[in-house]
Each structure stands twice: as C-alpha cells, then as structure tokens.
Inverse folding.
C-alpha cells in the first residue's frame, strides 16, 4: 500500500498517529540502484576493448558523464514526481496537509469527533472524502486506486473510532 501509519507521543504527552500517503512509484530504490548499475555496466563493457590505450582516457569521461546524467535525471524525477498527503490525528485535532510539486502546501483541519468519512462512487469510483461539522469537505488519496481507497477508509475509520473512544482500543 502506498501509505503507512506512524504512532508517536507529542510534547504534551498526547498520542499522535500520522498517516503518510504517496503516489505509487514503479521505480523502487532497489530498482534505481539496478538501473544505475546496469547503465554503468553497459557503458563500461565496450571500454574493456580499449584498456591500456589512450583512447580509454578519452572515452571514460563521456561514459561517467552519461551515468551521472542518468542518476541526476532519475533523482530529479523522483523528487518532483510525488504528491504526498500527511494526516495527523490527535484526540483534539485532525490535520491534513497535501504537498504537490510546484504548489504551496494545502492544509485542512477539524475536530476528530466531528469528522466523518464518506466513500461514494461519484465523481470517480471509491471517492474518499473527509467532512467536518461545518460542511467543509476534502478529498483524500485521490492518487490511490479504488481498492486502496476502500482499505484506507477502513483503516482511517478504525483510527478515528480509537481516538473518539480510547477505552475501545
């Protein structure tokens, strides 16, 4: 699942649950290492034919530059490519921050007692929203698949129930 929970205790001694959601990325850190290693190997193999000659020293900077350019481009795409949502759940506050590349962070907050989750099939399948007592509504996990949003709703519903009634957990 492209989300994970972190349990902490804040400076006031209150329990805090943080939910981090991120856009799915097909290239994992291990895949990144394999891609760089494969590119370096593919560029070094032809250079073995010129080991011991001055030609090697002429070609080596270009091969190293190509590997560096690939590494830089993949790191740049990794940093810029991700929408991240962070939900902080405390007994007295539910706070959501959404960070999109190239935009200022957007924040929403409400009292967990009054926050309601809704999962409906309009405008998209398994459209997950949070609504506070005042009628304000935000979408959560827009970049997740419908099945992931259903699972997220179940997890978040359990977390909200535990915050509303600590004796139940």
């Amino acid at each position: 699942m492209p989300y994970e929970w972190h349990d902490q205790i804040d400076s006031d001694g209150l329990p805090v649950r943080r939910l981090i959601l991120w856009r799915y990325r097909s290239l994992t850190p291990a895949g990144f290492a394999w891609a760089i290693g494969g590119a370096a190997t593919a560029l070094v193999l032809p250079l073995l034919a010129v080991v011991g000659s001055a030609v090697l020293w002429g070609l080596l900077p270009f091969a190293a530059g190509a590997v560096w350019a690939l590494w830089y481009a993949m790191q740049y795409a990794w940093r810029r490519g991700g929408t991240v949502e962070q939900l902080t759940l405390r007994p007295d506050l539910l706070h959501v921050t959404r960070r999109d590349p190239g935009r200022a962070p957007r924040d929403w907050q409400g009292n967990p007692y009054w926050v309601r989750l809704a999962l409906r099939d309009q405008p998209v399948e398994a459209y997950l929203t949070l609504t506070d007592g005042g009628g304000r509504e935000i979408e959560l996990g827009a970049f997740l698949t419908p099945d992931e949003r259903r699972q997220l709703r179940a997890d978040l519903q359990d977390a909200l129930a535990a915050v509303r009634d600590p004796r139940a957990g």
About this structure: The chain has two domains: 3-25+84-168, 29-80. Residues 29-80 form one domain. Residues 13 and 90 are 11 Å apart (CA to CA).
